[in-house]
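Lab notes, practical 5.
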Amino acid sequence: MLAFRPSLRPLVGVTIGLIAGFALAVILGSISPAGFKGMASSLVWVYTSPASLIFTLTLLGPIACAAVGLTLAYRARFITIGSEGQILLGSIVTLWLIEYSDLNLHPTIAIPTSIVLGGFAGAFLGFVVGLLRVYVNANEILVSLMLNYVILYILNHLASGPWRVGPFAITRSVGEEYRLGPLAIVVTTVSLTLLCWVLLTRSKFGLAIKVYGRAPRVAETYGLNSKTIVLAVAMLSGFTSGVGGVLMMLGFQHNLSPMSVSPGYGYMGVLVSWLSANNPLVALLASWFFSSILVLGRSLQASGLPIGYVLAIQSIIVLSVMIARRLTSR
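Output from the prediction step:
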């Protein structure tokens, strides 16, 4: 087994996994109804076409915002998976502010206000999970998962009930003047990533997170308040995920309709955070990879691949990255 510097292991693992995963995906695609040509053309289109690259950057927002916040939580061994519900709540708050609050705010005021409110809405959900973990020792995985479903059902109620417009169960759409382009989404996402990286690597609080995550009893012996650390990372990860919901609504979603299952951007953020070894900068790059997989899946469907093949190809790529990431960490 080759030896790598610890700081390079996540990147090396992701790179090896990508190469192996895409090679296996091409082989699987070549025996599908689309054939090798359809698979190859979809791959080339996704990573060379300006239109696909722009769409990839648009989808980057909610995945990366969830992932970089979770890097802080997971460093502190606060294993929440509530980013999915926090993203949905951020999008609900954004739609309410712009279309249903009757405030009629100008876009220059409404957009930053949406980012703040959506972030705080996500932080509130995170705070609830952290509070239950700290004071009643509730399992944060189960609590956050249940809250995801609570928010999903609230969204379905609003879309099919009080916010419904017309004969179909769908809400109003965010006006054109409020929508964000890929550049604004990337700038917001990169800014959050850099803030999380600075907080984790250049602050006393980041050091406290690392110490508590590695040795909780040692941290408490040296005067670090475990409750404060857990509540702080719970709220910070919730805030970034809530901002991801704002970017989703203003970037490409624009309205809400009832869902049987949630979109999954927050769950992707969980996987991205784990694959990146809880490094915010690596998580940003891995988020772009996952958003490109989503675009690739849509392209493969358009080229004639059944949805079963598409899901299998996406799973093979992800599993290859996970295996390579694990092997290079040893």
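Observations recorded by the TA: The chain has a mean pLDDT of 88. The first helix runs from residue 9 to 30.
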